[in-house]
Structure formats: structure tokens, C-alpha cells
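Researcher: I'd like a structural prediction for the single chain below. Treat it as a standalone chain; there are no partners to consider.
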Amino acid sequence: MKKLWGGRFSKTTDQLVEDFHSSISFDQRLYKEDIEGSIAHARMLGAQGIISEEESHLIINGLSELLDEIAAGKVEFDQKSEDIHMNIESLLTDKIGDAGKKLHTGRSRNDQVALDVRLNLLREMEEIQDLLRALMEALLTVAEKNVQTVLPGYTHLQRAQPINFAHHMMAYFEMFYRDYQRLLDTAKRTSVSPLGSGAMAGTTFPLDRERVKEELGMQEISRNSLDAVSDRDFIIEFTSFASITMMHLSRLSEEIIFWSSQEAAFIELDDAYSTGSSIMPQKKNPDVAELVRGKTGRVYGNLMQILTVMKGLPLAYNKDMQEDKESLFDTVDTLKKCLLVYAPMLTTMRIREDNMLDAAKKGYTNATDLADYLVYKGLPFRDAHEVSGKLVAYGIAEGKELDQMTMSEFKSFSEMIEEDIYQAIDVRTCVEKRDLPGATGFTKTKEAIIEAKIIIESL
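Model: Treating it as a single chain, here is the predicted structure.
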């Protein structure tokens, strides 16, 4: 098969090089964007008089037919045509004749591929926005049902202070809302049309770049042709966003794995989102959460891969940049799959409120509130902290929680302690008294949920 770029060459490409060089095995997923970009380019070429209107219509009609044929599975791509761009052009020329050879006027594969990847990523970003929104809605659903559910909060994986489960869920809402905002911000810098930059220096043809940008629904045109064909910042930015989002998913997965263990028994995952053991009949494993945790490293690896590819490249285009796509596509697919399965896993899990409350009552999670009680009585905080610490040490030695101690035991450490101490260190009181904006108090948590619903409605 004669190469579309073969005029300068006297020998055919070695088969080993054909196999090594070709990207059609993975970049064929860009066919829709490649055809959409080519249709916009052909329409502009006709309007500018660079090709005739008749040729422009012929090309557009041929490309539209190709789009339908590929979508219907009627087209087989040829490895010898190397990539999706050359495949489309060859198929078009076979379909409509010499007019197809004029499609590439004023264009290079360098600005063409940059456009295709941007258009494809923008389309994927819209789907990911919907999936993130669904996850945030799932977190809100769980939170709204569990404002009054008390559990121990942890630091260093040690029981620290009582909180409510809704507040814990809303912490992840904040994380994924930041991710959503990062994605929108990344989309702005992705929505830049490089078409018209040519191979690196622009073109001598009077292209209407603004027209093409408008037809493709992009926000800007690139300002520098060298940068336009060699820029992959938008891929790095997206993969960075995806890595941060996966990190948040992984953190939540770690908690779900712990909460669903028999040691904690705070939740039970639905059977539909769990798996069993091939040898141990009793097992119910949180495999979805574990897989998400594991796939996080895969996305991190993709970020390091593209950063490493780009770090030593001089301007402008280099063949190394063909390595941008497989890792990007893998990141997109991995993130979408994780987000898709996560929301229903959350909304179907059973919350074991009694176990959470029992755990919150143990481990001296109300020790800070005991210190605060003494401060309100007039004792300096450092002294109050010491008294509370000594009471905890005494409780550990005696096998008693703070609320199990007698008044005489309390008085032996501080005469300031009165009968109202039992109400002050009740774990539900400990939660409710934290009523500052952003804190875990029941009232403030309800307000946070209302505010979050407004945020969701605005997305």
C-alpha cells in the first residue's frame, strides 16, 4: 500500500516498523472526533474558496457516510495506514475519489491529532461530570439519613472524638466537589482549537480558524502554533485531576473496608456489591472498594508516564507524543468504571447505628469534652487537660469508661466536677455542642446538607 506521505521515500516500510509505528489499534476510538474535525475543516475550506464548494460538499457527505458505517461496525481499519487520521483519509478517497485528497489542505496530522484528543477528552469530561455529580448525590442521600447516627471519629486510627456519620459523609462530598471544580477548570484549558497550526509553523492558506472553533463548540483558538502542536498539558492536567479523584475514592474505600470488617462492623455492604471466597463459605469481601483502592495506583502510574514522556521533548512535535493516548484512555476508562460502581455501592450499604454508637462510647472519645467542662467551670485549659488525662489513665487501670465513674471518683481528681458532668460527657451531647459552622453538630450538619443540595442543583 502506497503511503500518503511516501513521495520522498524509495523503499517500503519494514513490517517490523509497521507494527511498531502503527497506533490504529488504540487511536481508532478517536474516529468520531477525527471525522467531526474533518467535516468542520472541509466546510471552512469550501467557504474560504481554498477548495470548491462542490468538493467541500462531496467530502462532507463522504465523511458523514463513513461516520455511520464505522458506528455500524462496517469498516475495518488498516494497520498499514498507521493511525485513525490516515485511515479516514484513505477510506474517504476510496469512497469519493480525488476530492478526498484535498481534505488535508492546510492541515497536518500534528494539529489534527491535538484537536481529536481535545475533542474526545471534552466529551469524556462531560460524562465524568455526570458521574461525579451522581456520587455527590449518593453521599448526600446517605448523609441525610444519618444525621443522628453517632460514631467515633479517628485520628492515627485511634478513636478520637464522637461525630455523626452524616458529617463524615459530607467530608467526602467536599472532596468530590473540589474534584468537580478541578475538572471544570481543566475543561476550559482543553477547549482550545489547535487546527490551523499545521505541522508547527501555521499555513499559507487563508484558513478561518475562528469558524472551525465555533463549529466544534470550542472556547478559544491556540495563540502559538509551536505550542499548539506540542502541548499536552491538558492531558497532564486531566490525569492529575483523575489521580486526585482516585485518591479520594481510595481513602473512602479504605474506610469502607475497615467499617465492613467484623472488628468494626459499622456497615454491611449489599450482596450485589460484595463477593465471596472460593474456599471460605462465610466470607463476604468488600472487593469493589479494594479494587478501587488498587486501581488508584494504576492512574498514578499513568500520570507519571505522561509527565516522563513530555519532560525532555524539544519543540515542536516528536513521535514520543504518540505515547500520550493509551495511558490517557486507560485513565478515562478506569475513573469512569470506579465512579459508576461507587454511587450505588454507597446507597445500598446498611448502616449499623448501634455498633457505631457503642464504639463511640468506648475509648474515652469524650475526654476532650471533660476537659472543656472543667474550662467552663473556670479551670485553665492546660490544667483541665491534665485532670482529664489522669481520669483517663485511672479509667484504663480500673477498666471503666468516663461515664461509668462515680461522683466520688470524679471528685478525687477535681472538686469542680458536679452531677452535670454525666450530661456533659454523653456522646450525643459531645456531638451536638459542636455547633460552629463546619463542625459536627447535628444542626450544623443539617445546614451543611441543605447547602450541598443547593450546590448540586447549580451544577
